[in-house]
């Protein structure tokens, strides 16, 4: 804007970024940032045997989830997935 003012331009052209970005071989880019395969895998909850990973399971937490399975499922379905619990036909089988 300062440069436009100094050049006596009243309404400078607004710069708009392209809506979609493509790779050199014309594939659509979902994300322009590369975080690394291991971070990307962990963020997507996909775990591979060739990437070293250590899990620590807390037995008390597992027991709490089992004891409160109805509430746990309700939160997972209604809050995280944004679905009505009435839509789940086989809820008791789960």
Structure summary, number of beta strands: 0
Order of helices and strands: HHHH
Secondary structure category: mainly alpha
Estimated helix fraction: 25-40%
Q: Hey, roughly how much beta strand do the residues contain?
A: under 5%
Number of separate helices: 4
Summed up, the domain count is 1
| Gyration radius from CA atoms, angstroms | 25 Å
Uncertain runs: none
Family: Belongs to the DNA polymerase type-B family.
Subcellular location: Nucleus
Cofactor: [4Fe-4S] cluster
EC number: 2.7.7.7
Essential attributes:
DNA-directed DNA polymerase, zinc ion binding, mainly alpha, zinc-finger
Layout of helices and strands:
Layout: H1 2-6, H2 37-43, H3 59-67, H4 69-80
GO molecular function: 4 iron, 4 sulfur cluster binding; DNA binding; DNA-directed DNA polymerase activity; single-stranded DNA 3'-5' DNA exonuclease activity; zinc ion binding
Cofactor: [4Fe-4S] cluster
Catalytic activity: DNA(n) + a 2'-deoxyribonucleoside 5'-triphosphate = DNA(n+1) + diphosphate
Summarize the structure.
Its EC number is 2.7.7.7. 35% of the residues lie in helices and 0% in strands. It is mainly alpha-helical.
Description:
The protein has 94 residues and is mainly alpha-helical. The chain has one domain (16-87). The chain has four helices and no strands. It has helices spanning 2-6, 37-43, 59-67, 69-80. The longest helix has 12 residues, at 69-80. The N and C termini lie far apart (60 Å). The model has no long low-confidence stretch (mean pLDDT 76).
């Amino acid at each position: 804007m300062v440069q436009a003012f100094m050049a006596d331009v009243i309404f400078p052209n607004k710069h708009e970024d392209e809506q979609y970005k493509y790779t050199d071989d014309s594939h659509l880019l979902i994300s322009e940032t590369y975080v690394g395969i291991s971070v990307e895998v962990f963020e997507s909850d996909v775990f591979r045997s060739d990437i070293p990973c250590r899990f620590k399971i807390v037995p008390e937490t597992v027991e709490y989830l089992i004891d409160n399975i109805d509430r746990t499922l309700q939160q997972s379905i209604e809050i995280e997935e944004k679905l009505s619990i009435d839509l789940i036909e086989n809820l008791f089988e789960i």
